[in-house]
Amino acid sequence: MSEERQSNFLVRTYRRYIGPGTPGEAIGYWVFIIGAILGVIGIVVFLYSTTIDLNGGEPFDEREIAVVLSSIGLMMLLLGVVIRLPSNRRVTLVALLGAVITLAATVAFIWAYPSNWNVPTDDFSSEIIAIYSVGIGLIVLSAIILPALLKTPEDVFEDLAPAKVDSKGTFELFRDRADDWRWRLRHSNGNIIASSGEGYSSKQNARKGMESVRKNVPGAPVIEVNRPEDASQATFQLYEDQAGEWRWRLRHDNGRIIADSGEGYNERSGASDAIARVREYAASAHLLQLENGAFDLYSRDGQWHWRLLNPRGRALAESPHGYDSRADAVTAVEELRLAESVTAEVTPSGDGYTWQLVRDGAPLAAGTRTYSNERNANDAISRAQALVEGADILTLNVGAFDLYKDKADEWRWRLLASNGRIIADSGEGYSARAKARQGVTSVQRNAPDAPVQS
Question: Is the pTM of this model over 0.90?
Answer without folding.
Answer: no
